[in-house]
Amino acid sequence: MTKYNINYGNKKEAVYRSLVNPKLMNELKGQIISILLKRKKYKDKEYSAKRLAEDLHTNTRYVSAVVNVCFDMNYTSLVNKYRVDNAKLLLTDKRYAKLRMEEISDLVGFSNRQSFYAAFYKYTGLTPRQYKLDNTKN
Prior knowledge:
The protein is built from 7 helices and no strands. With 138 residues, it is mainly α. It has 2 domains: 15-72; 79-135, Orthogonal Bundle (Arc Repressor Mutant, subunit A), CATH 1.10.10. InterPro entries: Homeodomain-like_sf (IPR009057), HTH_AraC (IPR018060).
């Protein structure tokens, strides 16, 4: 599919992914979920894989390996998925009904409208507006 420049190309398996100890991988997975979801770091536009690695006292290769193996996506995709999931909640919540799409995009952590629309379409197959119309009652 080429809409929003989404590429579903072939993945190559990086050798270093298999070198991470399974016990450590499981531990890091839990910590990644805790930091990104429970502490809502996915909303921070400046929160990078490098900063996550620093918070976990590890390196970015380990973070990358854990995210790729445990979540089957890269760090940016994982963060964007959490943002889209949050946006879906806001789009269907009556308390946020008057907000513009740009405001929703900003609240969940996207830097610009184009990135928001591309990520939203990637994970839902709909634009945010279509999703809102399909999932709200008048």
